[in-house]
Amino acid sequence: MIEDMDFSEFDEKREGTSELENRMANTLNSFLNVAIIIDHITLLAHESGLGTCWVRYFNVAAVRKILAIPDNFTIVALLPIGYPSESGRMREPMDGESLILRWE
Ligand SMILES: Cc1cc2nc3c(=O)[nH]c(=O)nc-3n(C[C@H](O)[C@H](O)[C@H](O)COP(=O)(O)O)c2cc1C
């Protein structure tokens, strides 16, 4: 979750960035922070023999009510964690070279 906060003290430190970037920076940073945390949790879960999965598509109102989450928190994702009932399939390792974007 992301808590509504006053980020205005960071605004003046972003000279030279585009207007769009400025407008979105605080929101983007908050979402990036959550993504990093979730990724670490998923890796730790896997290492511990647990299964998990990002869930971004859910009924926000229902989750807010069930978990009694106040309105000043934005729910970014759910992360169910448990013992898998079956073993998942392994992906083929990705070709790292194909992930690199180059331009002249
Ligand atoms: C930002 C994000 C949101 C996701 N939201 C959902 C979701 O709402 N429901 C779901 O079943 N999986 C969700 N996933 C999990 C992906 O479906 C999952 O990464 C994928 O099933 C991995 O399988 P793959 O090995 O086929 O890529 C989400 C993943 C990410 C990164």
Q: Care to describe what's here?
A:
This protein has 104 residues and is mainly alpha-helical. It has a single domain (2-85), classed as NADH Oxidase (3-Layer(aba) Sandwich), CATH 3.40.109. It is built from 3 helices and 4 strands, in the order βααβαββ. Strands 1-3 form a two-stranded antiparallel ribbon. The radius of gyration is 18 Å and the shape is flat. The model has no long low-confidence stretch (mean pLDDT 89). Flavin mononucleotide binds at residues 53-57, 91. Flavin mononucleotide binds next to loops.
Topology:
Blueprint: E1 2-3, H1 8-11, H2 19-47, E2 51-52, H3 60-66, E3 73-74, E4 81-82
Antiparallel strand pairs: 1-3, 2-4
This protein binds flavin mononucleotide.
Flavin mononucleotide (FMN) is lined by residues 53-57, 91.
CATH topological fold name: NADH Oxidase
**From N to C, what is the helix and strand string?**
EHHEHEE
- How many helix segments? 3
Report the sheet with the most strands, covering strand number, pairing sense and barrel closure: 2 strands, antiparallel
Shape summary: flat
Beta-strand percent range: 5-15%
Q: Strands across the major sheet, in which order?
A: 1-3
What is the rounded Rg? 18 Å
**Spans with pLDDT under 50 lasting ≥5 residues?**
none
Task: List the ions, cofactors and other small molecules found in this model.
Answer: flavin mononucleotide
Sum this structure up briefly:
The chain has 104 residues and is mainly alpha-helical. Helix content is 38%, strand content 8%. The longest helix has 29 residues, at 19-47.
